[in-house]
Amino acid sequence: MTGRQTRSTIGMLAPATGLIAIFVLVPMVLTIGLSFTQWSTQTGFETASFVGLANFTDLFGPTSIGRDFRAAFGNTAIYTALSVALILPLSVVLGLLVHQTFAPGGIVLRTVLFSTYMVPMIAVALVWSKLYSPTEGPINQMLGWVGIPPQTWLSSPKTALVSIVILNVWQQVGYFTVLAVAGLTQIPRSLYEAALVDGASAWMQFWRITLPLLRNTLLFSAVIAVINAVQVFEPVALITQGGPVNSTNVMTYHIRRVGIERAQGGLGSAMAVTLMLSLIVVIVILFALLRDRGEQR
User: Fold this and answer.
1) Does a structural domain hold residue 234?
2) CB 268 within 8 A of CB 260
3) Which regions in the chain score pLDDT beneath 50?
4) For residues 163 and 83, what is the distance between their CA atoms, to the nearest angstrom?
5) CA-CA distances (angstroms) from residue 280 to 122, 226, 252?
6) Is residue 120 part of a domain?
7) In this predicted structure, what is the pLDDT of residue 20?
8) What is the CATH number of the domain that holds 153?
9) To bridge 94 with a disulfide, which of 118, 134, 177, 290 should be the other Cys (CB 3.0-4.6 Å)?
10) Residues 6+ apart with CB under 8 A from 194
């Protein structure tokens, strides 16, 4: 019976694991292998020649290849940090607002917030490019009402990346608000009632009950937010094309430039591997930090 159950389990898992192997593991292994080669994407894999760590040496070297890579990596790090720093607090605040029971409209607000996540990124990018327009854009018009001069949101290296971050936060925050609401529903109401009897204020209830018990939800949200931010591509490709002055040239767009437009497949693969390893390190650090805080509590 045990052997029969094992064969049955393997048979049921085989289709899913086979697809994962074909579409995830094989490309990942191939990318890692190509990162140690010199290969043009305009030719077949048989033309790839082994160069060892030369691609990685170029990425961290003093040449223009290294400078462009480090600039794109820095832009991605800033974009990711700002996105996560804005999305997580906003999702908790909006989650508390949606989860409240003393005022009507929670379900409607939840629907409106989540609907932003359902809008295709191409539509979001086109709409926000008009909102950021320096002349007829509504944002600059509203700033003019309070005496602030028009801003070149997407044309200035100082504001272009932040403008893309705001776009991303607007689209993503609804999804993470739903996750926060799901975590809030798992907190027993009796804990708040006991705290209220003990005279705890609303702030103390949030700090001592809500936030600690949302730790796992926030960990999951942080991991997903980091992965989504690192993979940003559409708004950069559709609105700024990495400009101005490469201020929005993030890693995914830079890898496309190098690997596809310049046909440097080996170098682009090395960039992708470096990005993947960096992402793994960040996620491990997130798990370690939140787990340690949870154990201390």
Assistant:
1) yes
2) yes
3) 1
4) 11
5) 28, 10, 16
6) yes
7) 81
8) 1.10.3720.10
9) 177
10) none
Euclidean distance between CA atoms 234 and 222, whole angstroms: 21
Phi-psi region of 147 (alpha: psi -120 to 50; beta: other; left: phi over 0): left
In a domain, residue 2? The reply is no
Report how many domains make up the chain. Answer: 1
Can you give the pLDDT at residue 3? 65
Q: Which amino acid is it at 184?
A: L
Give the model's pLDDT for residue 192: 86
| pLDDT for res 104 | 61
Tokens of 144: 């003019």
Q: At what angle do helices 64-99 and 160-185 cross, to 10 degrees?
A: 40
What is the secondary structure of the chain as a DSSP string?
-HHHHHHHHHHHHHHHHHHHIIIIIHHHHHHHHHTTEE-BTTS-GGG-EE-TTHHHHHHTSSSHHHHHHHHHHHHHHHHHHHHHHHHHHHHHHHHHHHH-SSSS-HHHHHHHHHHHHHS-HHHHHHHHHHHT-TTT-HHHHHHHHTTPPP--TTTSTTTHHHHHHHHHHHHHHHHHHHHHHHHHHTS-HHHHHHHHHTT--HHHHIIIIIHHHTHHHHHHHHHHHHHHHHT--HHIIIIITT-STTTT--HHHHHHIIIIIS-BHHHHHHHHHHHHHHHHHHHHHHHHHHHHHHHH-
Alpha-carbon distance of 25 to 77, in angstroms, equals 26
Specify whether the CB–CB gap between 87 and 176 falls below 8 A. yes
Range of the domain at 262: 35-290
**CA 164, CA 75: separation in Å to the nearest integer?**
11
Cα(285)–Cα(186) distance, rounded to whole angstroms?
26
Phi–psi pair at 281, nearest 5 degrees: -60, -45
Is position 109 within any domain? yes
pTM of the model: 0.89
Give residue 17's pLDDT: 81
Say how far apart CA 209 and CA 220 lie, in whole Å: 18
